[in-house]
């Protein structure tokens, strides 16, 4: 298969993947919104029934049904939100792909243009292939890094307050 045809096929597959991932994310988010709305509606409905009930038994049953329906709607909404988050993670992988490929190509160019012995070139290419097979590692934020981010954000707010005050 020629490079141009391979390129077109790869981009067609990536576009299809993008459409699938965004469609799943939109559907999951919409369904979560519907589930949350239905749960809130049922909670208000059963709370109203409980308030205007003629007997204590009816009020207790209506209140219990309202609480159960709200909890069930919350669980369903949480499930759809998790599905949407998974689709967003897959979509992020889609957008990370060109950056990852450019890093591999840059490494390949550095190895090709470098004045290396065959043994050194073999070791570097072996490490490069192992990195490609392992795939990208998800970023992890250390507690110190998150503290630095919070500190910088707080400092930036302080600077804005001083500048505006």
Write a concise synopsis of the structure shown.
The protein has 165 residues and is mainly alpha-helical. The protein is built from four helices and no strands. The chain has helices at residues 3-51, 56-113, 118-134, 143-164.
Q: Tell me the strand percentage band.
A: under 5%
Measured between the Cα atoms of the first and last residue, the distance is 66 Å
The number of helical elements comes to: 4
Shape: elongated
Major β-sheet, in short? Answer: none
Whole-number radius of gyration? 27 Å
Number of strands: 0
Detail the poorly predicted runs. 155-165
Could you outline the blueprint of secondary structure elements for this entry?
Layout: H1 3-51, H2 56-113, H3 118-134, H4 143-164
Helix pairs in contact: 1-2, 2-3
Question: What would you note in describing this structure?
Answer:
This protein is an all-alpha fold and 165 residues long. It has four helices and no strands. It has helices spanning 3-51, 56-113, 118-134, 143-164. The longest helix is centred in the middle third of the chain and has 58 residues, at 56-113. The chain is elongated and about 90 Å long. The termini are far apart. The model is unreliable at 155-165 (pLDDT under 50).
């Amino acid at each position: 298969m020629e490079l141009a045809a391979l390129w077109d096929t790869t981009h067609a597959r990536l576009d299809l993947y993008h459409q699938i991932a965004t469609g799943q994310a939109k559907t999951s988010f919409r369904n979560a919104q519907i589930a949350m709305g239905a749960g809130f509606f049922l909670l208000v409905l059963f709370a109203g029934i409980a308030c205007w009930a003629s007997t204590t038994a009816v009020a207790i049953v209506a209140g219990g049904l309202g609480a159960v329906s709200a909890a069930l709607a919350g669980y369903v909404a949480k499930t759809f939100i998790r599905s949407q988050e998974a689709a967003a993670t897959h979509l992020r992988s889609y957008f990370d792909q060109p950056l990852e490929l450019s890093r591999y190509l840059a490494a390949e160019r550095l190895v090709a243009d470098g004045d290396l012995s065959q043994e050194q070139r073999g070791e570097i290419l072996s490490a490069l292939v192992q990195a490609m097979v392992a795939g990208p590692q998800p970023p992890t934020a250390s507690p110190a890094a998150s503290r630095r981010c919070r500190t910088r954000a707080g400092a930036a707010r302080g600077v804005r307050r001083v500048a505006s005050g």
